[in-house]
Design goal:
Layout (H helix, E strand, L loop, with lengths): L8 E6 L4 H12 L3 E7 L6 H5 L4 E4 L3 H13 L3 E4 L6 H12 L5 E4 L5 H13 L5 E8 L9 H16 L19 E3 L2 E7 L5 E9 L2 E9 L6 H10 L5 E4 L9
Parallel strand pairs: 1-2, 1-3, 3-4, 4-5, 5-11, 6-8
Antiparallel strand pairs: 6-9, 7-8, 9-10
């Protein structure tokens, strides 16, 4: 079923008690082509989703349970739109294997649902071809459970692809001593610095440097409402994309 059908698409939200989950519930309820049929809190059974006849479920929980939730959804033929980070290559591989036997079921795992953040990741891959140096600073609220963020990891991977396509080697860095980890994490060869600070929501700066110049890409989400257009896009499109898609850019026409 697509959003052009007369009957609204039946949607469940897992993690409805959280800040992102409650925002997603409001967004689904406000959409005339969608119907919120289940809003699950921490102690609710997943069977509530099938009992309600949901066709798509949005998982906005925590890293410790998201893989288990999505596995259950796929087993029951329900499309999944996932904003929870913490996925590894192993858990993604297990999910891909499961989806091979789940005819027509689609899963979208999006490190970031903000359209601007998705564009910044794509632009970073393009810019990476032209600069010797690249680093990422990601800034989030102090209640975030993982670091670096999924967005930063996705951005680092994009930069690495761009550098590889251009035949660039390692980012120049003469640091020999860093006992306190001041240079940050290294993800796909790119240094990533994580800030956790009260008052922030979700922010990322990507810095590129070349001889005599610096180029910056920056995206700021000041409110969780910024993620909702991407969440709704995922809900409406996931059934048309069977199998696993990682990154909302897979649903956008970005070339």
């Amino acid at each position: 079923m697509t959003s052009t059908d007369q009957t609204p698409l039946r949607v469940a939200v897992i993690g409805a008690g959280g800040r992102m989950g409650s925002e997603a519930c409001r967004a689904v309820e406000a959409a005339t082509d969608l119907e919120l049929v289940a809003a699950l809190g921490r102690d609710d059974e997943l069977s509530t989703i099938t009992d309600a006849g949901a066709q798509v479920a949005v998982d906005l929980t925590v890293p410790s349970v998201t893989a288990q939730n999505v596995r259950w959804l796929v087993e029951h033929g329900i499309h999944a739109v996932v904003g929870t980070t913490g996925w590894t290559e192993e858990t993604l591989g297990d999910l891909r294997s499961q989806l091979e036997g789940a005819d027509g079921v689609g899963v979208l795992i999006a490190p970031n649902f903000a359209i601007g953040a998705v564009l910044a990741m794509r632009f970073a891959e393009v810019a990476a071809r032209y600069y010797d140096s690249a680093e990422i600073i990601e800034m989030h609220h102090p209640d975030k459970l993982d670091a670096p963020s999924g967005t930063a990891r996705h951005t680092a991977a994009a930069i690495a692809r761009g550098r590889k396509a251009a035949g660039l080697g390692a980012v120049p860095d003469a640091t020999q001593k860093d006992p306190d980890g001041a240079r940050g994490a290294v993800v796909d060869g790119i240094h990533v610095h994580a800030v956790r600070q009260r008052g922030l929501v979700a922010h990322e700066v990507v810095q590129f440097g070349g001889p005599g110049e610096q180029f910056q890409l920056r995206h700021d989400s000041f409110d969780r409402a910024s993620f909702m257009p991407g969440v709704l896009l995922g809900v409406r499109e996931v059934a048309a994309h069977p199998g696993l898609t990682v990154g909302l850019d897979g649903y956008l026409e970005l070339g």
